[in-house]
Amino acid sequence: MAGVVVLYNLPNILTISRIVVIPVMFLAIYIHSVLWSILAGVLFVLASITDYLDGYFARSRNQNSVLGRLLDPIADKLLVISALVIIVANQLVSPLTYIPVIIIMCREVLVSGLREFLAEFQVGMPVTRLAKWKTGFQMTAISMILLQHLPYIGTPVGVLGEWLLWVAGILTFITGYQYFDKCLDYIYTVENKKKNPVKQMEQEVKKIAVRVKKSVEKAVEKKTAGKRGRKPKAAGENEDGVKVKTTAAKTAVKTRRRKKRTVKKAAVKAAVPAKQEPSVSAPAETTAEK
Predict the structure, then answer these.
(1) Higher per-residue confidence, 82 vs 189
(2) Quick check: is 248 in a domain?
(3) What's the domain range around 26?
(4) How many CB atoms neighbour CB 57 within 10 A?
């Protein structure tokens, strides 16, 4: 009974609905009518919205499940690839736009393979912020292209969707390269048990760039101070170039002054008994004379 509850909670139902609408959308390839094309576009838009809602409800209702984590990425990839196949089959974009379509499809296969490989070593591949932007552009572009048969506004919407698909293709290529690079870095570390020399070189270049930047900033500061007719502010000086004693210097001066006062007081105390000795011995001499 517990398994049935996990299967039919709201997030999982929304995830499964994205898979269910795929066969209905595929009928647009065989049923060539404006109404069915618009229906395919509307179904894709609704399925894209559920991609956000299932995660939101899973977090807000604390209904995260293993089945949901399994089906969610699979449903997303099936939905996107199916929609791209429909677009190409119905020739909804120009032949040149097939390039981002192929890039998106290849990237989905690549990332799936990388995740499966890294899962054997219990290494995760978290979704980056750029990948989320890619998904947003991708879903918006496909929705616009599928809805280009809408009356009055369909044509400009389809053209804009085609441009957005190119943007999604570029972001897809960048994120795919990032994931592949991380995987290669991990493989090199495991095989050689040391860091990738390319990564080490990149870190060294970054350190050198930071040093050069600091040197340039110092040179610019000196040049600016020289143009204003004053020397650059040095350590222990205020903005007007006046030397300001630090707290440690002030404390040292006060200590020296205190020692001097102590020495003077000791000298005065030592001198006072020496002056009183003659006045004490004088009466003795007078008595002897008498």
Answers:
(1) 82
(2) no
(3) 2-196
(4) 18
φ, ψ for residue 243, nearest 5 deg: -70, 135
The token pair that represents 253 in the structure block: 């001066």
- What whole-number distance in Å separates Cα of residue 206 and Cα of residue 201? 9
| pLDDT > 90: percent of the chain | 25
Tell me the pTM: 0.62
pLDDT at 12 over 60: yes
* Residue 21 confidence (pLDDT) above 50: yes
Query: 283 in a domain, yes or no?
Result: no
Domain count, the chain: 2
- Tell me the CATH number at 84: 1.20.120.1760
Q: Are residues 145 and 27 in the same domain?
A: yes
Is residue 102 in some structural domain? yes
Q: Determine the Cα–Cα distance for residues 12 and 65; give it in Å rounded to an integer.
A: 8
pLDDT band at 231 (very low <50, low <70, confident <90, very high): low
Helix (H, G, I), strand (E, B) or coil at 90: coil
